[in-house]
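Journal club prep — side note

Before the paper discussion, L.F. wants everyone to see what a predicted structure for a comparable chain looks like in token form. Sequence:
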Amino acid sequence: MKKTLIEETKQNLRRLKLNDMAECLDQALTDAGKNREGHLTFLASLIKKQVDAKNDRSFERRVKKAGFPEMLTFENFDWNFQPGLNIEYIKNLAQLDFIEKRQPVLILGKTGTGKEHLSTAFGIRACKFGYRVGFYRAQDLLRQLYASLAYDSTDKIISDVIRLDLLILNGLGYIRPKPEYPSLLFDLVNACRKRVSLIITSAISFEEWGQIMGNSSITNAIVDRLFDHAALINIRSGRSYRTEGPHAPNFHLDDSESN
């Protein structure tokens, strides 16, 4: 049986690996007829569907490769929960100029104030705009670097990291330090400097980093390099979403327990 022109067109589109255009062809033809679209408008609309689908798949691959723990975005961030948050400043940073400038972003705040949400939101937005992103728990990456010492592969891990456009280190401060960690972190930060934009979140102050890491002189050198031209988001005095947010546990006593 002879193929219809539509079937032949779909087959040719698939041969050209334009599968999304092939899938959308019937509906696109129907819409074009209803809207009385011209040939160029019809073609442009069909091509856009292919481009949009390709961009969506690329975005999904970048998000998966980045290793985010959750899909935390600016759209689902509760902007009203932290009254002291400089929303305009954060939304300006969300334009992602800091990535092009290879600028570090430091997010300080106690547990539950939204550090991880903000850092992830920056990362997901960066993926949307085509940047290569890596999200790591600080403890996990330091553990990898420490393990690499035994195989003399530390340089390879750092070389892989500096191929990224944005590296997110979450929870620097919540680590179980080893004597080698300060030097490893210094090497990482130094390698990223002016090559990769860094986002670092921490629940402790910079002064406490030296105590946690166990080597104040190296830690101070790390802080100096980060502060060279860093953007700072300070929510250390903010409210904890975990203990004061809408889904926080309710510990109110009933009348019998309060007597």
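L.F.'s comment for the group: The chain has 13 helices and five strands. Keep this in mind when we get to the figures.
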